[in-house]
Amino acid sequence: MGWYYEDFQVGAQWNTPARTITESDVMHFAQLSGDFNPLHTDFEFAKHQRFGKPVAHGMLGLSIVLGLIARLNIFDGTAVALLGIDQWKFSAPIFFGDTVHAMVTIRDMRETRDPRYGILFRSVQLVNQTGTVVQSGELNIMMQRKQEGVSQS
């Protein structure tokens, strides 16, 4: 079971496990999304574009961030809802073969009117193997709160 709202504190920070982005990841994402832009899927086309080779979809990077954060296991079973993706920036390309991880920081916390829930404001950076931040922004989430006198099992 994941952590509850009260288990977090402003300034707490985590680095997720890393994963390597493969051509297969990009092709599967193209199939799921229907986005077959040759910038992502055609090596010959991409050779003549800005980066000289295919790049992963920006939204694939964002999706991978969510999966990497899930691997921390601290939100499992206690996260209620993703409330927003704010000020998300795509700062650098993600290439096939890049290995990325996410850095998550609790920027702020707020109780809600409903005493069962609280909100975490999380600043997140997706970082590649050279230390370049390729994406960043805020992923705000509603969390369960501990309930006095109620079993959490």
From TrEMBL:
Residues 10-116 form the MaoC-like domain. Pfam families: MaoC_dehydratas (PF01575). It comes from the Bacteria. This is Dehydratase.
